[in-house]
Amino acid sequence: MIRILIADDHRILREGLKQILAETSDMSVVAEANNGQEVLTRLRDQAVDVVLLDISMPGTSGLDVLKQLRSDHPHLAILILSMYSEEQYAIRALRAGAAGYLTKDSAPDELIGAIRKISQGKKYVSASLAEKLAVYLESGEDIPLHQTLSDREYQVMCLIASGKSVTEIAAEIHLSVKTISTYRSRILDKMRLKSNAALTHYVIQNQLLE
């Protein structure tokens, strides 16, 4: 039996996932969490084989939770299940230690297949992501500039491009305005851009927003 923890801050989605998984004979949802801290707490008390982890939950970001899980539970299989497109976060999640990445609009059969695969110690990527990776490797192109950003820099970049001010971003991710301003300067430098407008154009052009 594959023991599963579902980590998502939307109760309706958790209930839907439980209903899908209840129809399988080899899976059991043994724990739930609606934020990153709850994930870590549940894993202290409950043995789990697979974690279905939302990348955007209240408090600690999904990528930060992922990194903590890889440190505390190196053999745990983690499948990122996100509303964000593969172009936005899949490669970052896999680099951070996820065993697989699926968008929330994936078919139930694909979800079940992914869980079974990563529970065996294997990696899972969708057919579309595998094709994108193959094209990227064959092209021999340099790594895109946004891939040189740290996870936090990438998050701030997307928030700037969504039209939020430095003050709004600081409040949303619980950092000081000064720290966000420093991130902004670092992002513009790494991206070789001179303004928020240029940054927003890049993000939209590369389809990095929802």
Explain what this protein looks like in three dimensions:
Helix 2 runs parallel beside helix 3, helix 7 packs across helix 10 and helix 8 (166-173) packs across helix 9 (177-191). This protein has two domains: 2-136, Response regulator (Rossmann fold, 3-Layer(aba) Sandwich), CATH 3.40.50.2300; 145-205, Arc Repressor Mutant, subunit A (Orthogonal Bundle), CATH 1.10.10. With 210 residues, the chain is an alpha/beta fold. It has a five-stranded parallel β-sheet, with helices on both faces. It has ten helices and five strands. The longest helix has 15 residues, at 177-191. The chain has helices at residues 11-22, 36-45, 62-72, 86-95, 108-119, 127-139, 151-161, 166-173, 177-191, 196-205, and strands at residues 2-7, 27-33, 50-53, 77-82, 100-103. Helix 1 (11-22) links the parallel strand 1 (2-7) and strand 2 (27-33).
Brief rundown of the structure:
With 210 residues, the chain is of the alpha/beta class.
Indicate the multimeric state.
single chain
Q: Please work out how many helical segments DSSP would assign.
A: 10
The fourth-level CATH homologous superfamily of the largest domain is: Response regulator
The CATH topology of the largest domain turns out to be: Rossmann fold
**What is Rg?**
18 Å
How many strand elements?
Answer: 5
Give the distance, in angstroms, between the N- and C-terminal Cα atoms.
35 Å
- How many structural domains can be distinguished in the coordinates? 2
What fraction strand?
5-15%
Specify the CATH class of the largest domain: Alpha Beta
CATH architecture designation of the largest domain: 3-Layer(aba) Sandwich
H and E string = EHEHEHEHEHHHHHH
Q: In what order do the strands lie side by side in the largest sheet?
A: 2-1-3-4-5
**Uncertain segments:** none
